[in-house]
Amino acid sequence: MVSVLDLAWQTIRTRLGGFAGAFIAILCGTALVAACGILMESGLRAGVPTQRYAAAAVVVGGAQSVRPPGADALSTEQVGEQPSVPAALAGRIASVPGVRAAVAEQSFPAQVVTRDGRVLADRESLGHNWDAAVLAPFTLRGGDAPAAADEVVLDADLARRADVGIGGQVRITTASGTVPVKVSGVVDGGSRQSAVFFTPERAAELAGRPGQVHAIGVLADPGVAPETLAERVRAVAGGAEVTTGVERSSIEFLDVSQTRVLLLAIAGSFGGFALLVAVFVVASTLALTINQRRREFALLRAVAATPRQIRKLIGTETTLIALVAGVLGSALGLAVAGGLRDAFAAIGVIPADFGLAIGPLPPVAAVLLGLGAARLAAWAASRRPSSIRPVEALGEAAVERRELGRGRLLTGWGLVLAGVGGALVPLFLRGDIAAAISTMSTLVVVIGLAVVGPQVTGLVMRFLVPVLARLWRISGYLAGANAHANARRVAAAVTPLMLAVAFALATFYGPTAMTAAAQQESARSTTADYVLAAPGGISPEVAAAAGRVPGVAAATPVVRTSVITATPVGDSVEVQRTPAQGVAGDQAGAALELGVDAGRLTDLTGDTVALSRSEADWLDKKLGDDVEFYFGDGVPAKLRLVATYTHDLAFGDFVLPVALAREHIGGRLDDSVLVRRQPGADAGAVASALSALPYPGLVVAPASVLAAPEGGERQAQFYLNLVAAGVIVGYLAISVANTLVLTTAQRGREFALLRLVGTSRRQVTRMMRLEAVATVGIAIVMGTLVALIPLALLNFGLRGNPVPAGSPTVYFGIIAGAAVLGMVAIGLATSVALRARPIDAIGVRE
């Protein structure tokens, strides 16, 4: 007696072409899910090799995340600025058993100025105290350690690029200004950051953080394991971060710690989209594959196969295919994860030297998820062929069922209505949440239309049939009649192409709407005439010097930072990091128009804060109330609200006094200075005087080039979305080609019958071209409309203009790619199907 497993295996062997579509869909879907899992694991335990702390067994730094009181373990937020630890902690750590030495390290921006006035800013350059050189270890190649305040030691690469040797003179720019120093020595040792060593006293002075240090490196006694020592150090470290191994790099490099959180966020959001799309694609592909075998299942029902046996057969076949495709896909996921890591590094959102953590859990989880999705899809697709009565089997197989079930119609149109409702949200909310909901509403509408696809496609084809017949008599009539009679098949071809078009449009034009709105509001709100900037930031002295230039009415420094808020929502606490900026309240009004609707910016001094109107309403704060949050470095804040404003897209939700903002950023440098000249002052003379200020690397530009404060971060997020969306669109493109080839290849007997009754090969080919045009056209039009409605509402809510922001060239590129993909896939499959002689093809079993 043949078992179900044997029968399933024989069916797969004899129908390799039919199962190829499901195999490819599961293979690619599993690869995507595995890649996302690897990214998530990397976010938990990967990093870069430590460099400055290579000799330290344990490194202690400030807490890298904020967890407010009452928040659960998942409600934490990564700090946006470099935190510090008390210098006195080094003494307590030094007394721990097994500690040979505890060395406190200062770290602050210190850039070398070359003889021709250039600032070496192609690589981050930091100043340190000389006694911390032992942590790398940095060893003297020549010369001596710095012994006076005007002496420094440079690393060898920095000395080479500055073209200076031992005993030479060089200028160093820090937050305190630019000073000439003597190079007393040069050290070996390489790092992704350049190193400038000062005397311990001078380094503490330049760091500008009395009683605080960047980190404490712990050297272990011989034979003491780092993990054992770390446990002992944690007992005295209080709330400080204690790290060993690769974790040390998260203290050394702020971007490593941020990258790990970013990878977790990418894996969560991108992985969720990937899994949703994969389930959708696998389900539609399996449904199409099973639908092609209607005659086979009808015959099995006619010879007394029970519904349970048919479902078991389909489930077994699917399991075999899913296991093989899943294992191969999980291996392919390693390459996909590596490619994503390289792409993210290329656009600058993660460090180029950030490695991936490869473990067994993500591939195994991807195989299980792929298998589960395939079995669920197989169960749903097997309900129809297993539920028909034996007496109706052959009739059911001969004619495609036209009507859809009531439950399917209610579900599909309910999703469409829910998606349209979500698209209205940007009319009432602003910011990133509006853009996210807009994109999600597009996907919900697409899924809803996919559920009721045969009904929608049938309605569209009802109008297209007479048009096609009128334009191309025989071929047009055949194309229209075929498409109208086989609405399910056409819908199966239209759906993935429509999803690809809509997803690509929403992913590209959604972020451009936010960027355009922020830039538009920033340009309208900036009343300054010039903006001063320099590589790596500028000294706070620049603003004061610019204010003394003849013809300058006001010069306000701007510090870009972030803050972390904790808002109770029900029984949980919502924690998020949001952009903020520091400005000089007494000068800001002359250079910026924040749209103040309550209070005064001139009161923005000391321990005060200004909030956007939306944030103040969300926190239920009024003028004079205390606002509690965390600075970017994780330090708690409790500031008095002195003003609210409406231009939050341009300036974020928090505006701080510039002096307070400087205290909580690692470099103590300003990002820019906004300058407004006096009425009637000569523009050229003022610009020349500003350019002549004695600060190396200072650039004077028109204020019109100023982007929104979070523009750089938003741009990086935009490119990040493009990379992630490109991978999903690539998967959808494979699915589109897969589906179109399957729906065309199954029609070999139909083509043979048409040719035997007198239709020429040319007429059949033209018929398929017209069907391809109709299929691609419907997908492009529906995909465009599905994306256009949420995008128009998003742009109207943010910019007051419903026309989507962004280059129209991208749209034409997307629809051109969709058209080429659809036409080529159908054309190639038709060409292959027509190669066989009609008399041979008509006898091929389905």
What does this structure look like?
It is a single chain. The protein is an alpha+beta fold and 846 residues long. Strands 6, 7, 8, 9, 10, 11, 12 and 13 form an eight-stranded mixed sheet that branches. It has a six-stranded mixed β-barrel with strand order 18-19-24-21-23-22. It has a four-stranded antiparallel sheet with strand order 5-15-1-16. The chain is elongated and about 100 Å long. It starts with a helix and ends in a 5-residue tail after the last helix.
What would you say about this model in short?
By secondary structure, the chain is an alpha+beta fold. It has 29 helices and 26 strands. A hairpin with a 2-residue loop joins strand 18 and strand 19.
Instruction: Note the gap between the termini.
Output: 25 Å
**Rg value:** 33 Å
Overall pLDDT: 82
What is the count of DSSP helices, taking H or I runs of 4+ residues?
Answer: 29
Largest sheet at a glance?
Answer: 8 strands, mixed
- Per DSSP, what share of the residues sits in E-state strands of 2 or more residues? 15-25%
**pLDDT < 50 stretches:** none
The overall strand count is: 26
**Tell me, what's the shape?**
elongated
Query: Could you estimate the helical fraction of the residues in percent?
Result: 40-55%
Kindly name the structural category.
alpha+beta
Subcellular location: Cell membrane
Domain ABC3 transporter permease C-terminal: 269-388, 723-836
Protein name: ABC transporter permease
Keywords: Cell membrane, Membrane, Transmembrane, Transmembrane helix
